[in-house]
Amino acid sequence: MTNIKTLKKEVAPYEKSTTKESIWQMINTLGPFFLLWFLAYQSLSVSYWLALVPIVIAAGFLTRIFIIFHDCTHFSFFKSRRANRAVGTAMGVLTLFPFDQWGHDHAVHHATSGNLDKRGTGDIWTLTIDEYVAAPLKTRLAYRFYRNPFVMFVLGPIYVFLLKNRFNRKNARKKERNNTYVVNAIIVVLITLLCLALGWKEFLLVQGSIFMVSGSIGIWLFYVQHTFEDSYFEEDKEWQYVLAAVEGSSFYKLPKIMQFLTGNIGYHHVHHLSPRVPNYKLEEAHKNTEPLQNVPTISLWTSLKSLRFKLWDEENKTFVSFRGVKSSVKSNARISAEAKPEL
Fold this sequence. Notes:
By secondary structure, the chain is mainly alpha-helical. The chain is 61% helix and 4% strand. It has 15 helices and five strands. Helix 3 crosses helix 10 (200-224).
């Protein structure tokens, strides 16, 4: 890719948020979400199957709410840090994410994405072929369980959003711990009030369904934007931030309605290159920065292939399936043997 050293400078003009656009995005996101939530609740009196229509659409808007939360943790949604914290914490209540805790882990993810020596915080568990082959049986079984689509996209949201997010990470600072406590307390109060006002069964049917759909969407987006065939992983000494951003984060080209509901996060390469670009300027930054036209691009259809990618092949710089492990190991062994000098 040309002009790799100047890419961040070319994207820099798009890093300034616009208060008017940020407020409008909150209106056109929160308004439809609460309306759809109410329609789903009202539809329960007829049929749960009828309620599923507004539930699924509401899940899309909850995904968009998460993107607002996500931007606030990068302090890119408003110019004011205080406004980002206030709005971000409120959006975190709706999405079940503590602002400071997730902000910390996500910042680490940005600083280490694609770095083989710094995995483990804010990312998806990824092993190389060599690591997997050398691992004990219990680790290989655990990794296969973790990488199972049902576990990742169905059980995953339950574990991460409902359980993991409720507890502070080890060594968290007081400010971060307190933010988690506050978010948890508000969530408990809101759920209690809504259950008393609407009925606990009705609340669970609507909010539980919205949560499961949006949670699966969220984890899928995070997964597919870093797990594609020719992604980017390097050891620390070879790792480069810009290359990790533009080669290790995909351009997920989605239909316009899905692009809207996912807050333009499909332009993930732009976001990783410059996290201070608010979501509503990601598309503009992509279109007006010529070197970004050649980044890895996946469509809704081709992204489904990512489900089979399980392990990183360091030798060939590509993801492979579990079935491809044996052939990759044999191929690498043959190449190594051929490279040995004759005695």
